[in-house]
Amino acid sequence: MIKNWRWFISKRLREAVEDRKQIIKLLAAQRDLIKPAKIDELEQALSELDEQCRGPIDKEALLDARKNALDSADRVLIPYRDAGWRDWVEMFLVVAALVLAFRTFFFQPFKIPTGSMQPTLYGITIENLMDRVSGNIKGRVDEGILTATDAFFHSTDVGRTILFDDESSATITRFLSGDRVEVDLKTNIEQQQFTVTFELPNKKRYAVEKLRGYSYHSMQAEGNWKLENIEELRKIIPFISKQILVFRDIDSNEIIRRTVWDPPLNSYQKPILAMGYKDDHEQPFIHSQFARNEFIFKLRVKTGDHLFVNRVTYNFRHPRRGDISVFTIKSADATHGHSGLPNNDTFYIKRLVGLGGENVTIGPDRHLRINDRRLSSIDRGFEFVYSHPKDSNRMPLNPAIKSVYSGHELVNDFHYRGPDLSNSKSPYKVPKNHLIFFGDNTANSMDSRSWGALPKKNVIGHSSFVYWPPLSPRFGWSHR
Predict the structure, then answer these.
(1) Using CA atoms, how far apart are residues 419 and 189, in angstroms rounded to an integer?
(2) Is the dihedral angle over the CA atoms 284, 287, 293, 294 positive or is it negative?
(3) Which of 48, 222, 328, 386 has the fewest C-beta atoms lying within 10 Å of its C-beta?
(4) Which residues, other chains included, contact 453 with Cβ-Cβ below 8 Å and sequence gap of 6+?
(5) How far apart are CA 138 and CA 412, in angstroms?
(6) Taking a C-beta distance cutoff of 8 angstroms, is the pair 217, 297 a contact?
(7) How many other C-beta atoms can be found within 10 angstroms of the C-beta atom of residue 46?
């Protein structure tokens, strides 16, 4: 290394130092292939360049020494074929090695696949944005509150537009319950039928929605069409796929093919439009007929949270209760019941609730008991599990509990029944060097309640920084 403070202010000196470094590097790689006399010639030129790089700079002498060194290098060193490509490949390999090392030993990117950790972390969710007609259900507006004669609204309706039969309209600003929502309408409306509709975002709003984690997918009929076939998803190149919908024009009998680029996928990475029948998302099914300008499908997909998994911490401490941990598990790892797990290692993310050697039960209030001690919102990692403020129109097993996200419930499905966690007189004891994990979305999570404990060695790390979507309220380190 040239120790000369003038390096910071002289471009010529910096270039000369860099050339000298590269020549020395190539000479070291080829020394056993070059005759000693030529090596001496090149080292003499490098010595002269080194001398000019020290002390006060003589610009002319430095340029001459640099040119002499480069000319000597051209005569002595053996040229590589495709030197430019070699540099690019070398740089790529170095970067790839650094990325793999960082991913393996420090922080690994992870995408939340399902909604089992809601509302702490969100997986892929799909909303059907097609118009919903109230039918026999009627509604009236009184002081900004729309009350329906029966349950019709969902919590995802916030932001949608209400179109009444008298052609008046309002926007839903707040979800109150299945039959009541708050709207931005100052005048009262008598009881009548209504339609809930959603307007797709324009280009500017679409970009903002993308940063919030939302993507929109829609298609409209350009005539009187009948859906004949939905072809399988095809990958063109990595990260780009397409799916073709085949229609028949009812008026002209013409076959029409329309391509859907990057069609929406569910949490299991299966295409929503590949079903070919009316499924839970009310997507088009074979032989459906559509009038001109009618939507064939209109969806909003909420991408799963993307986060970094901290693989460092567990090298210095044991996993703690309350940690949101990522682990691998397969059917052979299940200790109880019908696991429903694949034969190959699969990544899961859940909250660690029980350690090896502990006695675990779930009380009638949906609170965990660990060694007869009741967990509550004052325990680290369970602050929101037992005190989440959101209400839901889905009634939990215990009417006194207002949110389905609150606490933990027992698994009632016989096919997925794991260890018995209901008997306080005979609690489930976690095997030594094993752990049990529960999902925060207790009503929609397959976890240790189904497949029991898993070996401690399966744990990879704990959740760290949520880096996508950047406009999500969970962005950063805030989730717990």
Answers:
(1) 54
(2) negative
(3) 222
(4) 335, 354, 356, 419, 430, 431, 434, 435, 436
(5) 36
(6) yes
(7) 20
* Token representation of residue 90: 């070398």
Domain 306-468 indexed as CATH 2.10.109.10: yes
Amino acid identity, position 15: E
The C-alpha atoms of residue 374 and residue 385 are separated, in whole angstroms, by 13
Fold identical between 5-76 and 306-468?
Answer: no
| Tens of pLDDT, residues 300-353 | 999 889 999 999 999 899 999 999 999 998 877 777 765 567 777 788 999 999
Q: What residues contact 434, with CB distance under 8 A and at least 6 apart? A: 335, 356, 453, 454, 455, 456
Tell me the C-alpha distance between 338 and 414, whole Å: 9
Q: What single string gives the DSSP state of each residue in 376-406?
A: -TTSTT-TTTTT-----SS--SSTT---TTS
Sign of CA dihedral 353, 357, 362, 366: negative
383-399 pLDDT, tens digit each: 888 886 544 444 444 44
Burial class of 400 by CB neighbour count within 10 A (0 to 12, 13 to 18, 19+):
exposed
Report residue 97's pLDDT band, with 50, 70 and 90 as the boundaries: confident
**Separation of alpha carbons 162 and 196, rounded Å:** 5
Cβ–Cβ < 8 Å for 171, 162 = yes
Distance between CA 274 and CA 231 in Å, rounded?
7
Nearest to 78 by CA among 138, 19, 33: 33
Whether 479 contacts 385, CB under 8 Å: no
User: Rounded distance, CA 58 to CA 214, Å?
Assistant: 61
Distance separating alpha carbons of residues 49 and 18, to the nearest angstrom? 11
Q: Taking the domains of the chain in order of start, what are their residue ranges?
A: 5-76, 132-197, 214-302, 306-468
What span, in angstroms and rounded, lies between the C-alpha atoms of 26 and 78?
9
